[in-house]
Design a protein that fits this description.
With about 450 residues, the protein is of the alpha/beta class. It has helices at about 15-30, 55-65, 70-75, 85-90, 90-95, 110-120, 135, 170, 180-190, 220-225, 245-255, 270-275, 285-295, 315-330, 355-380, and strands spanning about 5-10, 35, 45-50, 80, 100-105, 125, 150-155, 155, 175, 195-200, 235, 260-265, 300-310, 330-335, 385-390, 400, 410, 420-430, 435-440. About 35% of the residues lie in helices and about 20% in strands. A 6-stranded parallel sheet has the order 2-1-3-4-5-6, sandwiched between helices. Strands 15-16-17-19-18 form a 5-stranded mixed β-barrel. α11 (about 245-255) packs parallel to α13 (about 285-295). The structure holds S-adenosyl-L-homocysteine (SAH), iron/sulfur cluster and FE3-S4 cluster. Iron/sulfur cluster binds near residues 159, 162, 166 and 204. This is tRNA-2-methylthio-N(6)-dimethylallyladenosine synthase. It is an enzyme of class 2 (transferase).
Length: about 450
């Protein structure tokens, strides 16, 4: 085809952006763009950006800088920025980066084909207005329609929680739940195409449906998804502890397809810090939920997020975080050094923790985590795990998949097992994964 053009997308940040990038690729197919992994051959480069921490934002500027030369060399090459930095900066980004052609915000994906056509005619544009709910309901990113073993399905967008450190509510806008009928239809379609596992995706899936009249609850959504024939496994992410209902916890006991895994970010272990973070729960309440979850599913694997160095965090507060981490006994933890986000409430708070102190706390937590995850992974040695096989490893000599509890397992077996659940005997626990052997009776 003579007019085929190549699109290169680079995605930063969370799974929301990954999902949006799929949608962008599928929207631009309509203009004759097909995807490439090679930016030097692209006719259109899109950076789908994240601004959750300063480092993530800086990365974007670094990449924009590195494409400046390519823009000069390749006449007609177009460069666009989408996602959360685009939303935050809008027009300003066009001014700051003169070799940039288009900027589109988190609610403006649907305008992209028109904007790219305008850019092809030499017009530079930024579109970052938030759009109303009815239109948004029709614009949820739907996953690819072709195969794959496991798939993310967006169930909600935006966030109304305004945790005091977080930029997401400002760059993603108000929380909105997708119609359950649309979600179920997408999952049925995916299962018909061979998908075995879905992960329901949103900034805070636990509040799914609450604000929409006539919509079902998240727990009911899980039950209806679980009733879909041919679907083997369900996961969801992310959960906000303040919105975990007893009904949802009960799902872990009632629904065998619901995997024994939950990402439940605590962020901190001290009540004083949790309150300044505007998290809406206490340490005690969080630990209570963890106990209830373990009650419903004794082998549940819990992961979390922790921020160190939040304004005013004392040594004492940090010790409370360490003890919470120990008590919960996380299967894994994502740890972050607090990063000031201009425009958020926390940016106004006094009591900044010094860089050195933040780093020391971060290092201590990392060390604890290293020991915890290694110990956890070694504890699986000698057990038998059901592994949903996702594919052949990059080296080509092993299969990889995940246990019900979301641990990655590598093992040698025939590639015909891809897409199936294999019984695997665990033989070794690494830092970040497990090694196993296909189990033969
Ligand atoms: N909606 C999800 C994820 C939000 S961003 C949730 O609530 O769990 C992912 C993680 O980034 C957060 O959980 C938090 O731990 C971290 N984070 C967000 N803002 C941050 C900031 N300003 N500095 C450091 N870490 C931050
Ligand atoms: Fe940010 Fe809090 Fe919303 Fe998560 S729940 S996206 S941390 S404001
Ligand atoms: Fe980053 Fe935006 Fe996700 S700020 S974490 S890409 S919602």
């Amino acid at each position: 085809m003579t007019n085929e053009k190549l699109l290169y997308i680079e995605t930063f940040g969370c799974q929301m952006n990954v999902s949006d990038s799929e949608k962008i690729a599928s929207l631009l197919k309509g203009l004759g763009y097909s995807s490439t992994d090679d930016s030097s051959r692209a006719d259109l480069i899109i950076l789908n950006t994240c601004s959750v921490r300063a480092k993530a934002e800086e990365k974007v500027y670094g990449h924009l800088g590195s494409f400046k030369g390519l823009k000069r060399e390749r006449k007609g090459l177009l460069l666009g920025v989408g996602g959360c930095v685009a939303q935050q900066e809008g027009e300003r980004l066009l001014k700051k980066v003169p070799w940039l052609d288009l900027v589109f915000g988190t609610h403006n994906l649907h305008l992209l084909p028109e904007m790219v056509q305008a850019a092809e005619r030499g017009e530079r544009r930024a579109e970052v207005q938030f759009i109303d709910s009815d239109t948004r309901l029709d614009l949820f990113p739907a996953g690819e329609t072709e195969g794959g073993v496991t798939r993310f399905v967006t169930v909600m967008q935006g966030c109304d929680n305004f945790c005091s450190y977080c930029i997401v509510p400002y760059v993603r806008g108000r929380e909105i739940s997708r119609r359950s009928a649309d979600i179920l239809a997408e999952i049925r379609g995916a299962v018909a195409a061979g998908v075995k596992e879905v992960t329901l995706l949103g900034q805070n899936v636990n509040s799914y449906g609450i604000k929409t009249e006539g919509e079902i609850s998240f727990a009911e959504l899980l039950r209806q998804v679980a009733a879909i024939d041919g679907l083997e496994r369900i996961r969801f992410t992310t959960s906000h502890p303040k919105d975990i209902s007893p009904e949802l916890i009960a799902c872990f006991a009632e629904l065998p397809k619901l995997c024994g895994y939950i990402h439940l970010p605590a962020q901190a272990g001290s009540d004083a810090v949790l309150s300044r973070m505007n998290r809406g729960y206490t340490r005690q309440q969080y630990l209570g939920m963890v106990a209830d979850l373990k009650g419903a599913r004794p082998d549940i694997q819990i992961t979390g997020d922790i921020i160190v160095g939040f304004p005013g965090e004392t040594d004492e507060d940090f010790e409370q975080t360490l003890s919470l981490v120990e008590e919960v006994d996380y299967a894994d933890l994502f740890t972050f050094i607090y990063s000031v986000r201009p425009g958020t409430k926390a940016a106004e708070l006094p009591g900044a923790v010094s860089r050195k102190e933040k780093q020391q706390r971060f290092d201590r937590l990392q060390e604890m985590l290293r020991i915890m995850t290694r110990r956890r992974n070694e504890s699986f040695v000698g057990t038998r795990q059901k592994v949903l096989v996702e594919g052949v490893s990059k080296r080509g000599d092993q299969l990889f998949g995940r246990t019900d509890g979301n641990r990655v397992v590598n093992f040698s077996a025939d590639p015909s097992l891809v897409g199936k659940i294999a019984e695997v005997a665990i033989t070794f626990g690494y830092q970040n994964s497990l090694l196993g052997e296909l189990f033969h009776d």
